[in-house]
Amino acid sequence: MTRLIGTLLVLFWASSTALAQVSDNAVRIGVMTDLSSWGRDNTGPGSIEAAKMAIEEFGPTVLGKPIELISADHQMKVDVGTQIARGWIDNSKIDAIVDVPNSAIAIALHNMARERNKILLLSGAGASSLTDELCSPNTVQFTYDTYALAKVTASAMVVEGNKSWFFVTADYTFGQQLEQDATRFIKQAGGTVLGSVRHPSNTSDFSSFALQAQNSKSNVVAFANAGQDTQTAIKQANEFGLVSAGQKLVGLLLFDADIHAIGLREAQGTYMTTASYWNMDDKTRAWSKKFFDRTGVMPSMIHTGVYGATLHYLKAIKTAESDDPAKVMAKMRELPIEDAFVHQGRLREDGRVIRDMYLARVKKPEQSKERWDYLEIVRTVKGDDAFRPVSESKCPLLKR
């Protein structure tokens, strides 16, 4: 009898193993990020480490096959990013690409992933069009988008009486869409936009832009840019006395590393929206301190998004018993998203992950209790309220 049970168990295991299918005998994930340009501090090496931490948490194998991780620097150039992705698909047999901080590059890879039947797990790319009119069954937008950043920040600020706005906007896809989305919510809440100015990437002198913002006499000066551009803009806005004169600053895409670079004295009082914060609870603190030991910085929401997207992807492969993209995407939509930073999140048919977002304000220096203790969470906004509702979506994948 014991021998019979043992035989049956072996046969069951063999049958299950035979049903589980992993192409090319490995699951290969490519982290495409920025290692050399203005987004490096908020993505870059930290995104690679975050993906490694997800793999380590899940385990070194899935369905008995190794999980392999490769990475590359897209240099914030569309042609470089597409060339890397094409090489990964053709030569490295990549199964999924994660991160991609740059919306123009993400849109190019988004189309390639659909054509080549690969999975794209976006954390760094924020253009809301990726899960709206451009939506694809192969793309996941895991962390944030311009719609949520704009809605959470603008709606809350206008309700509190900050009705007039002026934009300092990066002259590329992400910045333009961020301003466009924010303008909509400002007007819906009863506010007005007094003006805006565009600047190229890697601008070192924001003096003329700061003066235009100052002369507008707006209640709020909003920076629709990212990385070093945001850091420089906020520093120079303080130098020109915008805050001391009563104008409030909003970083529509601001990260802990930006605040660290600016310094609390100059960044204090700035409002922002984030998908995660390292100092929320015991779980986020424990994970973040491990991350800090490996990188020397606390994680940005892009880093925690790379971790969460990679972990959820691996869980879906295990549950689907296959790395077939259609089967994996189906399981990613079916399974609740649970990790150190996301609780009861879900993946919608349009590729948008629905998760809580947080309106935060940068602390005053005397309020900070330890290094990297920079944010005060002002409001938690449920995912259904933060992200674009189905009723407004142009995505044909959503069932009406």
Task: Give me some keywords for this one.
4-stranded parallel sheet, Rossmann fold, single chain, 400 residues, disordered N terminus, alpha/beta, 6-stranded mixed sheet, 43% helix
Question: How is the topology of this model organized?
Answer:
Layout: H1 2-19, E1 27-33, H2 44-58, E2 61-62, E3 65-73, H3 78-91, E4 96-99, H4 103-116, E5 119-122, E6 139-141, H5 146-159, E7 164-170, H6 173-188, E8 192-199, H7 207-216, E9 220-224, H8 227-239, E10 248-251, H9 256-262, H10 264-267, E11 271-274, H11 282-295, H12 301-320, H13 325-334, E12 346-347, E13 353-354, E14 357-362, E15 375-381, H14 383-386
Parallel strand pairs: 1-3, 1-4, 4-5, 5-6, 7-8, 7-9, 9-10
Antiparallel strand pairs: 2-3, 11-14, 12-13, 14-15
Helix pairs in contact: 2-12, 3-4, 5-6, 8-9, 12-13
Task: Characterize the biggest β-sheet.
Answer: 6 strands, mixed
The best one-word shape is globular
**Could you say what the CATH topology of the largest domain is called?**
Rossmann fold
Write the element-wise H/E pattern from the N-terminal end onward: HEHEEHEHEEHEHEHEHEHHEHHHEEEEH
